[in-house]
Write a structure and sequence with these properties.
It contains 22 helices and 24 strands. By secondary structure, the protein is an alpha/beta fold. Helix 6 packs parallel to helix 17 and helix 10 runs parallel beside helix 12. The chain starts with 12 loop residues before the first helix and ends with a strand.
């Protein structure tokens, strides 16, 4: 093997001998310079970049040099602000639907801007209200286009109220607010008779055991910590407090009591049970289960969903210290996890939230389960058309950490610029995805995978590696249950995964997975299995070309099964798009 300096002068053979076999095995770098006997390698990926000068080349840069670097530091050094972002956004965008976004025209704009999953927050609103929102979402999706090549399935997620504590209505009205001044005295009450009496002197909360679990000097935080109270006196059903951090208190805001064992708070309340049964009747695709603290809480949610809701995905929201401590058992029982940073940033020190975020995302990636990063990602866009620089970096770092989905809350539920918020998140995700250290990520994910005799998983690993080696424009997979697409997503290819399925629910639920572009194939199965496979693969090819994932002549990896049904995926082909 010949090694060359950047200045094209050949390195002597004695120098080459100092390179260990481990250093030379599958290295993507050539020699740059030497320090004594130590050899620093420069990017072999330069050969990919040089291919860009060829007239028939299909390779786009998209931070390819950095993506295929050999070390993390070299990866960072090779990032280039002048290179184009990834062609197809791989990270899904979840949008909370509220007064600012529930109309059909606005929903259609959000779908066009990039919304993949619509979240309904059942902490607010009636069943009638949410039923109308679900109807609007489905109508918006079905009427946005009649062309199957551009149809975009949108999943619907039910976010439960959970065992959370909230304040009552300010002066008995939803739209009212009151100022709590710093240093003022406020009595926090729990009697049902005071439910609508919240004002500047009294704040009602829906947790009857408050006086039993809190101590003098304890802290009560309201509205994601924007308002802070310190307990001075405790009564039978009230506590007196001093306002340490003041602000405007609106109706029905969340309350956190860090450091307390919140006895009497069930994982699934009677209200949650009614909401979950309503979700089953409405055919929601997934449940975001709030304040999950143990595996038992997840099982309780599944019990309520019952046989009719067994196909609904359960995503556990981890937003307490206890949830972080029990993360492994929660992950094992859940279909996925949401890193809910709002309440988590109050339950644990704010400066430790990023540690919890990275830990949870890393463990979800290792387990091959989808993970969502949420809360205040583009918060300033509630009132402004552009985010702060810090918010842009926050979204990008969630993508770089490995999140499958990123979520917008108030930005789309009540903000002035819901469509612009989706479009901005779409743009940030594309840039961040191009900057992922794919070479290292794939190698580590592959190493973490135990030896497997499962043909579907083995085929998925081979398909993703082949997509890297060939700089494929896409991976097309035919899937019945969604498992093949899930396994491909687990190994994080750079290119999009076009998942062709006949199941509308599988298509919608696949929006949880990084890099998966679900497409619905409506025609009935052809009499001959091979013809049916060809029909679906050709449909996937048409989708890829129509959406600009690749063009004629580009390499595409095709993953299929050898007989009908799920669980039989074992064929991988590398083909040239026609």
């Amino acid at each position: 093997m010949e090694f060359w300096r950047r200045d094209s002068t050949q390195v002597d053979k004695d120098t080459v001998k100092s390179v260990s076999s481990e250093e030379t095995r599958c290295l993507p770098f050539l020699l740059s310079h030497r320090e004594g006997d130590r050899i620093l390698l420069s990017s072999r990926i330069r050969r990919y970049s040089e291919a860009m000068t060829q007239p028939d080349s299909f390779i786009q840069r998209q931070q390819l040099d950095a993506s295929m670097a050999d070390t993390f530091l070299e990866h960072l050094c090779l990032l280039d602000i002048d290179q184009e972002p990834i062609t197809a956004r791989n990270t899904s965008i979840i949008c909370t639907i509220g007064p600012a976004s529930r109309s059909i025209p606005k929903l259609q704009e959000m779908v066009k801007a990039g919304m993949n999953i619509a979240r309904l927050n059942f902490s607010h609103g009636s069943h009638e209200y949410h039923g109308e929102s679900i109807k609007n979402i489905r109508e918006a999706v079905e009427t946005i286009t009649s062309d199957p090549l551009y149809y975009r399935p949108v999943a619907i997620a039910l976010d439960t109220k959970g065992p959370e504590i909230r304040t009552g209505l300010v002066k008995g009205k939803v739209e009212e607010e009151v100022e709590l001044g710093k240093g003022s005295t406020v009595r926090v009450v729990t009697a049902e008779s005071d439910k609508d009496k919240t004002d500047g002197k009294i704040v009602w909360v829906d947790y009857p055991s408050l006086a039993k679990v809190i101590e003098k000097g304890g802290k009560i935080y309201i509205d994601d910590g924007l308002i802070g109270l310190r307990v001075t006196e405790i009564g039978p059903d009230w506590v007196d407090t001093v306002v340490e951090a003041g602000g405007k208190l609106c109706s029905r805001k969340g309350v956190n009591i860090p450091g307390c064992d919140l006895v009497g708070l069930q994982a699934v309340s009677e209200r949650d049970e009614a909401d979950l049964r309503f979700g089953v009747s409405q055919g929601v695709d997934m449940v975001f289960a709030s304040f999950i603290r143990s595996a038992k809480d997840v099982k309780d949610v599944r019990r309520v969903l019952g046989a009719h809701g067994r196909e609904i995905k359960v995503i556990s929201k981890v937003e307490s210290r206890q949830g972080v401590q029990n993360f492994e058992e929660i992950l094992a029982e859940s279909d996925g996890v949401m890193v809910a940073r709002g309440d988590l940033g109050i339950e644990i020190p704010a400066e430790k939230v990023f540690i919890a975020q990275k830990m949870m995302i890393g463990r979800c990636n290792s387990a091959g389960k989808p993970v969502i990063c949420a809360t205040q990602m583009l918060e300033s866009m509630v009132a402004h058309p552009r985010p702060t620089r810090a918010e842009g970096s926050d979204v990008a770092n969630a993508v770089l950490d490995g999140a499958d989905c990123v979520m917008l809350s108030g930005e789309t539920a009540k903000g002035l610029f819901p469509v612009e918020a989706v479009a901005m998140m779409h743009s940030i995700c594309r840039e961040a995805e191009a900057a992922i250290f794919h070479q290292q990520l794939f190698e580590e994910l592959r190493r973490l995978t135990p030896l497997s005799s499962d043909p579907t998983e083995v085929t998925a690993i081979g398909a993703v590696e082949s997509s890297f080696k060939s700089c494929a424009g896409a991976i097309i997979v035919l899937t019945t249950s969604g498992r093949s697409a899930h396994l491909l997503s687990r190994y994080r290819p750079r290119c999009p995964i076009i998942a062709v399925t006949r199941s509308p629910q599988v298509a919608r639920q696949s929006q949880l997975l990084r890099g998966v572009f679900p497409v619905l194939f409506h025609p009935l199965p052809a009499p001959v299995w091979a013809d049916d496979v060809d029909n679906r693969v050709n449909f996937g090819m048409d989708i890829g070309k129509a959406r600009g994932f690749f063009k004629s002549g580009d390499m595409v990896i095709v993953v299929t099964g050898w007989i009908p049904g799920s669980g039989h995926t074992n064929i991988m082909r590398a083909v040239s798009a026609e």
